[in-house]
Write a structure and sequence with these properties.
The complex is a heterodimer of chains A (195) and B (81). Chain A is 66% helix and 0% strand. Chain A is built from nine helices and no strands. In chain A, helix 6 crosses helix 9 and helix 7 packs across helix 9. Chain A is globular. Chain A starts with 7 loop residues before the first helix and ends in a 6-residue tail after the last helix. With 81 residues, chain B is mainly alpha-helical. Chain B contains three helices and no strands. Chain B is elongated, with a radius of gyration of 18 Å. Classes of the chains: A mainly alpha (195), B mainly alpha (81). Chains A and B meet through helix 1, helix 6, helix 7 and helix 9 of A and helix 1 and helix 3 of B.
């Protein structure tokens, strides 16, 4: 059950449509516009050179992000001194999470109901808000979250590339999720209560 | 990661376990503690659903999404006056 390899012009157009978001997401991880554009450019060229690699075996999306994953890792490796995770704001981050719980470990406030997930995920505006929330994350937190949740790297790979311990990675990912949840509550779900 | 474990897990511990369960295989004991707590706690059950939605959203993020409008001068806070 193999699919036809798409016509080059069709593929080219599909990739051009994806490019802006790919660059923005690469930028969230590399924190450098030129590097992000280069990484995406390299990934797209790799796809155009070997279109038969994805036809019939995986979606274009999976194929492109799979290649971009390696380009981003290459970039992070090349800029080795950028890899150190800055722990300067660790204390305030922990305090922010502490504030969500009572001394006995119960939640201070009931989390908002987020409604039907399938309905939420059909709305483009939801993803616009999510992207703004991603951009508001602290740089290092955003990088690790994107590596884990968008590029779908395993925690062990992330630890190796960023030279951090796994417990450090779990804490950073937990903080990222708590912040994103708060941001989505405020800017998306909260506005829709009772609407 | 070693969690301080009382007899009954707190929401604080279960929030952490829900998140870490997305990044590593939880131990049998951790899974049992988490499940028992989720059976009786609406707050953590909601949190669990929110984390599930967040993961689905990231993995299905539409690649054709156009850039958010650039803010005029600041760092992008939509509520800034």
């Amino acid at each position: 059950m193999t699919m036809e390899t798409p016509a080059p012009e069709t593929l080219h157009r599909q990739l051009e449509v994806m490019r802006p978001l790919l660059v923005r997401f690469a930028q969230l991880q590399l924190r450098n516009q030129a590097l992000a554009e280069d990484a995406v450019q390299d990934a797209l060229i790799a796809v155009l050179e070997k279109p038969e690699r994805f036809a019939g075996q995986s979606s274009l999306r999976t194929y492109v992000t799979g290649i971009l994953k390696f380009k981003i890792i290459d970039c992070l490796r090349a800029s080795g001194r950028e890899r150190q995770i800055d722990t300067a704001d660790d204390q305030s981050e922990d305090d922010a999470i502490d504030a969500l719980f009572l001394a006995d470990g119960h939640t201070r406030e009931q989390p908002l109901a987020w409604g039907r997930p399938d309905h939420t995920l059909e709305q483009k505006d939801f993803f616009r808000v999510l992207e703004i929330c991603l951009e508001k994350l602290p740089a290092k937190t955003a990088r690790i979250f994107m590596m884990r949740e968008w590029l779908e790297l395993e925690t062990e790979e992330i630890c190796k590339e960023l030279a951090i311990t796994s417990s450090n990675a779990w804490v950073l990912l937990y903080r990222a999720r708590m912040r994103l949840r708060e941001c989505l509550d405020l800017n998306w779900f909260g506005n829709r209560q009772g609407a | 990661m070693e969690h301080k474990t009382g007899l009954k897990p707190t929401c604080r511990e279960v929030h952490r376990l829900v998140s870490e369960g997305l990044d590593r295989e939880l131990s049998l004991v951790e899974r049992a503690r988490m499940r028992l707590h989720l059976m009786v706690c609406d707050a953590c059950t909601r949190f669990n659903g929110q984390m599930d939605l967040l993961r689905k959203a990231m993995r299905g993020f539409p690649l054709d999404l156009e850039a958010p409008p650039a803010p005029p001068h600041d760092s992008g806070d939509p509520h800034r006056h």
